[in-house]
Amino acid sequence: MKAKKVIAISLTAVMMLGLLSGCKKEDAKDKQASGSGSEMTIEIVAKGFQHDFWQAVLAGSKKAEEEFNVKTNFVGPEGEGAIATQVEQINNAINKKPSAICLAALDTNAALDAISQAQSQGIAIIGFDSGVPGAPEGAVKANAATDNYAAGELAAEKMYEAIKDKVTNPTDVVRIGVVSQEANSDSIIKRTSGFIDKMSSLIGENNSCVEGHDKYNRKSDGAKVIIEVRIPAEVTDNAGKTEALTLLNKEDLVAIYGSNEFAAKCIINANEGLNKLGEGKVIAVGFDSGALQIDAIKNKIFYGSVTQDPVSIGYNAVRLAVAAAKGEKVEDVDTGCQWYNSENYDASDIAPCLYQ
User: Fold this and answer.
1) C-alpha dihedral over 49, 55, 59, 61, to 10 degrees?
2) Sheet holding 283-287, edge to edge
3) Residue 345 needs a FRET pair 20 to 30 A away by CA distance; which of 176, 261, 293, 298 works?
4) Tens digits of residue pLDDT in 37-85
């Protein structure tokens, strides 16, 4: 009888230990899901790392890291043409088995295998900046990004205000130049398309045509306004500057648009020694910011530019990733864009969006 009592007590003790152990495991699991400790990790794979834009996105991600008490790791290739390098970085991120991944894909098709692998492992992906266009259904839970098409439209609207008299029923052919970094990135494509479509609409479809690149070409017989798109063969300062020079050296050029920081810098550098940009000259409109572009705007060499909010992009990407890792429903966030020029670049609602 006494032996049976001892056995019963022992069994009870074992069961209690098992319950306590189970509770501890469940607590740890809950802690990881809630992101209340260092167990929640977010891998962030950007399209680049060197440009000031990505450093501003990084700053936003660090702000969210601190607020939500999670661990983040931010990587990106040195240049935005290094697709293979980025795919390797995505695979490395997956191998770390993070709670979620934030991704701004250079080429979704090149990364499809990696994206599918993350999806099969139940790793939530949050797109940011240009996101992950064309990803398998359900792989990307939400995006934190600028509405790039609308941002391109805004650039066209502001430029049109300055050149309206020159492009309304001109006697001779006039030209609007567009420098685009490349023709693969969804964000660049949309900013370029938004600009072209809006400008064509403002001028009149029959009064304008688009040439220079097969992706955007549109003929219109007898059109007096030519929108010429130039895209460098490689994403280097010299190649971009060459394309900008080609446009600036055309006598019929009345305006020029650069669809990101790289393109705007190429236009500014090409203008050195030519002195063709500014008030009463060729009207230049840019995108993003950076010290060189801000200085060109302060000195009225550039008419103005459209800025995203890169800090908000980084912050919201991580915020959405934390929520998705918890299994919460998440939705796209439009991180917005604004127009700035020599009159408002230091305004309280603009200055925080501009990186040096």
Assistant:
1) -30
2) 208-211, 225-230, 174-179, 253-258, 283-287, 304-307, 338-340
3) 176
4) 457 999 999 999 878 889 989 999 999 999 999 999 999 998 888 999 9
Could you tell me which residues come within 8 angstroms of residue 285 by beta carbon, excluding any fewer than 6 positions away?
A: 155, 158, 159, 255, 256, 257, 258, 302, 303, 304, 305, 306
The tokens describing 324, both together, are 């998705």
CA triplet 128, 120, 42: central angle to 5 degrees? 40
Flag residues of the chain having pLDDT under 70: 1-38
Q: Which residues pair with 43 in a beta bridge?
A: 73, 101
Q: pTM to 2 decimals?
A: 0.74
Residue 306 sits at φ, ψ, to 5 deg, of -105, 130
Tokens at 288, concatenated: 């993003």
Please name which of 201, 188, 198 lies closest in space to residue 146, comparing C-alpha atoms.
188
